[in-house]
Amino acid sequence: MVLSVIKISHILERVGDYAKNIAKRSHVLSEMPPIDGAGMALKRMSATVEAMMKDALDSYIQRDAALAGDVRQRDLEVDQMYNALFREFLTHMMEDPRNITACMHLHFIAKNIERMGDHATGIAEQVIYLATGELPEEPRPKGESVPRMEGG
Fold first, then answer.
1. Residue 144 lies in a domain
2. pLDDT surpassing 60 at residue 148
3. pLDDT value, residue 21
4. Could you tell me which residues come within 8 angstroms of residue 91 by beta carbon, excluding any fewer than 6 positions away?
């Protein structure tokens, strides 16, 4: 239990780092022309990840392996949303090079949100371990992969 708590606290600290990065990029974006459709898509993705994080933490409090397993499954939806946004941002950049700066900021925001979803899944996996004594044997469900772009 102690090791799981340490891992979960590290995960939550990392999620806070992502939130800080999103806030910085949002401030920069507030001074740029909006990219059509990006705001709603990011809000939808954020809401999904927020619900995953809430359920992951609730599953920890309740030691509910079934709820934690559900969180793991929902990560696939977040991956799919991220991949769609990645392609959408590329399209906006190719159509008008003036969109590149805003789209790159939006891309990194989307990537940070996607990583938060991965971290919610990591918490869920720790809950499964706490509740059952074993980590999940099957790999996490993953969406189609886009080229990895690190940054933050």
1. no
2. no
3. 97
4. none
Structure tokens at 129: 């371990």
Share of the chain above pLDDT 70, in %: 93
Q: Which two tokens stand for residue 113?
A: 């949100």
Query: Residue 46's domain is classified under what CATH number?
Result: 1.20.58.220
Overall number of domains in the chain: 1
Describe the crossing of helices 65-95 and 38-62 by its angle, rounded to 10 degrees. 160
- Binned at pLDDT 50, 70 and 90, residue 135 comes out as confident
Average pLDDT, the chain: 92
- Asked whether residue 137 is domain-assigned, the answer is no
CA-CA distance, 19 to 41, in Å (whole number)?
A: 17
DSSP letter assigned to residue 152: -
